[in-house]
Specification:
The chain is of the alpha+beta class and 367 residues long. Helix content is 62%, strand content 7%. The longest helix has 28 residues.
Amino acid sequence: MRDPRQLSPALLLVAQRSDAADELRHRLEQQPQAVAQGLIGKGLATYALARLPEMDIDPAPIQASLAQAALIELGWTAKRKLALAEVNRLAADGRPRMVFKGAATSILLYPQETWRWSGDIDVMMHEDDLTELHPAAMAKLRAKQQEIPFPEHHIERQIVMGTAVELHYRLEFAPAWGALSDLLPNARPCPGLPNLLAPAADTACTLALLHLLKHRGSMPFDFLDLALIEESGLNWTQLAENWRDAGIAAYTIAGLAAAHELAGIGPADVVETLWNGLRGSDATCARFLRQCVLADALPRLRGYRFECLLMGIPFGRFCLRTFLGTRAATQRLTGYAPRDPRFWLAHCLALPCRRLWRLGTQGRRQQ
């Protein structure tokens, strides 16, 4: 496992490893304000107030700061509950909706919802249902997908009762899995929100691992969600089989290996068996993904390769598209239609040269 001195205060708080408490206690004695800022900045104030005494750590040096921040987190939770109630009301139309990630795990896994902060509410719908309900937003999303290299699969955030709500039709961090149909097996009604579905434990585990992978381990609640899901009981053999059937084993096992390395998530023998069981291109892909998660920073080109792998975009096609741009972008930038010869002069020569020049000047500035 990674040296605990290299872990952030937030990760030390949520890590499932015996050396985390000693390091966090030492850090709190030496730099209490830095620890407080690290915990508060990740939305962990309420959880820290409950967890630190369990770790035999006296929170007194930072208790006042944590208590003040916990009041803000309480307000976030109250707004999220109001927003979820409204989303539940809208879901009475019979179109299936699944709440997932933080808004779901706060209800399903935590003794108190205030322990699990989330920046928004994520809701998964069938693509056809989302298009029918929000045709203009989906048309805008389709146009945007033609212009940006790593397209989103959710419409623009809506503010409901003061809380951002993202309506998705698939995930953005798995190339072959992540539509509502993939999340539905063994789903159940969300407690207190009968019109909304919540993912089963194995699905929630898969979602947390993929989310951890996408954000390269920067979200401490991914680790805490995984620890609580693991406590609830998982059939790792069946879960691994599901990952292989879905074509995402390299991704989830890479995420699990990184989570174990950083925070002690997952039984050591299970993680080792799954990792050693990867073969061929899956093994190569998993090694690259794990290295990217554990790296302190990614060079730009490596970061692009990482994003392409997560979204199933061939890296060569990404490079070509980034260099040439899209026809829609050329038309927007020049005002010329494709029937105009000047459009093709700009598309094939002028704009690629400008992009190449900008890339070169940015590189020199970074040096």
